[in-house]
Design a protein that fits this description.
This protein is of the alpha+beta class. It folds into two domains: 220 residues, P-loop containing nucleotide triphosphate hydrolases (Rossmann fold, 3-Layer(aba) Sandwich), CATH 3.40.50.300; 116 residues, Beta Barrel (OB fold (Dihydrolipoamide Acetyltransferase, E2P)). It is 23% helix and 33% strand. The protein has eight helices and 20 strands. It has a six-stranded mixed beta sheet, with helices on both faces. Helix 2 packs parallel to helix 4.
Length: 370
């Protein structure tokens, strides 16, 4: 965020450890429709976990169950040592920030942040101290007397964040908090949210459908599919070792390359590539099974092949786009199939160039070929 003058106190609150949060077999149904199917998820105190998935996968419903905005059909929600499954939202001691900022238009920034403290009958002196601390932390102490309509979208979202944190909740819930902002502001604000969350040590659940956003801010990510957690792990685990075709396809970009299973390898256009064991369904884990492998573009390697004999690995460049520090080049093989390669910007190819493709020896996820 750009630098700004500050008149707020420079003393920050000591890093506080948030409470553990647990979902234990949480099921949520609406009549005959089940949206969550026995979700189990535990967050350590101070951890930031993203619920990531496409629209309709149940991630916002899970967040609302933690908040108490939805009553679970079965299972339990615990915050710290307390079972809060039947506790109303007003008594769960959580902070919430949504896509819509929901600021009071007739109140200044400072008064918006103060609102929760006033409702809790915190003393005037203590309210002033906490408001000063939080506005400094979110970088808005110099705008304390402005009104919401005088702020940018990113500034309004930081006010909403300060308002959620000023009551020192046991957990912070963020539901698509950046989706209404433009791309550059989103990147800056997500970095600031992560820095604030780390500084305060508050346990945080962050819902998003943006996989880049989830990978950038999380300690762990829970990828959700049709009301279930398809995989839970660090951003690196999800990207490098996706446990299912759904995760491989949803998290990052992948080429789909037809191949044949042979033991712990898949043969892709003549090249043996290791397979992630967890991704191989038992019914297809036999020699010769026809599968589709998910290969990352950065593991798809190119070299000029104009002087080499034609093979299953030679193809023709369809396009090559400049993306700053990298280029993305699409190659078509003689059978009509295509792969994309992500490589250094210095490796320039033109449409029509003949190239040879190779695949790095990085383990891949596979699924049965239909």
């Amino acid at each position: 965020m750009p630098a700004h003058p500050s008149t707020a106190p420079t003393t920050r609150p000591a890093a506080a450890t948030g409470s553990a949060v647990h979902l234990e077999g949480v099921t949520k149904s609406y009549g005959a429709t089940t949206v969550l199917h026995g979700i189990d998820l535990s967050l350590a105190p101070g951890e930031l976990v993203c619920l990531l998935g496409p629209s309709g996968c149940g991630k916002t419903t899970a967040l609302r169950c933690i908040a108490g905005l939805e009553q679970v059909t079965a299972g339990r929600v615990r915050i710290g040592d307390a079972d809060v499954t039947e506790v109303p939202v007003s008594r769960r001691d959580i902070g919430m920030v949504f896509q819509q900022y929901s600021l009071f238009p007739h109140l200044t920034v400072a008064r918006n942040v103060e609102f929760g403290l006033a409702m809790r009958r915190v003393s005037r002196a203590e309210r002033a101290r906490r408001i000063g601390e939080l506005l400094e932390i979110v970088g808005l102490d110099h705008l304390a007397e402005r009104y919401p309509h005088e702020l940018s979208g990113g500034q309004q979202q930081r006010v909403a964040l300060a308002r959620a944190l000023v009551t020192r909740p046991r957990a912070l819930l963020l539901d698509e908090p950046l989706s209404a902002l433009d791309a550059k502001v989103r990147v800056r604000l997500r970095e600031q949210i992560r820095a604030i969350q780390t500084e305060l040590g508050i346990t945080t659940i962050f819902v998003t459908h943006d996989q880049e956003e989830a990978l950038a801010v999380s300690d762990r990510v829970a990828v959700m599919e049709a009301g279930r957690i398809a995989q839970l792990g660090t951003p690196e685990d999800l990207y490098r070792r996706p446990a299912s075709p759904f995760v491989a396809d949803f998290v990052g970009l992948s080429n789909r390359v037809d191949g044949e299973l042979r033991g712990d390898r898949v043969i892709l256009r003549g090249l043996p590539i290791p397979v992630i064991p967890a991704s191989v369904p038992t019914s297809t884990g036999v020699a010769g099974a026809r599968v589709t492998a998910y290969v990352r573009p950065e593991h798809t390697l190119l070299r000029g092949g104009s002087g080499e004999a034609a093979s299953d690995l030679t193809g023709t460049v369809l396009s090559s786009g400049f993306l700053g520090s990298i280029r993305r080049t699409v190659v078509q093989f003689s059978d009509g199939s295509t792969v994309a390669s992500q490589h250094g910007a210095g490796e320039a190819y033109r449409a029509g160039d003949r190239v040879t493709v190779a695949f790095a020896a990085e383990a891949v996820t596979v699924e049965p070929r239909v």
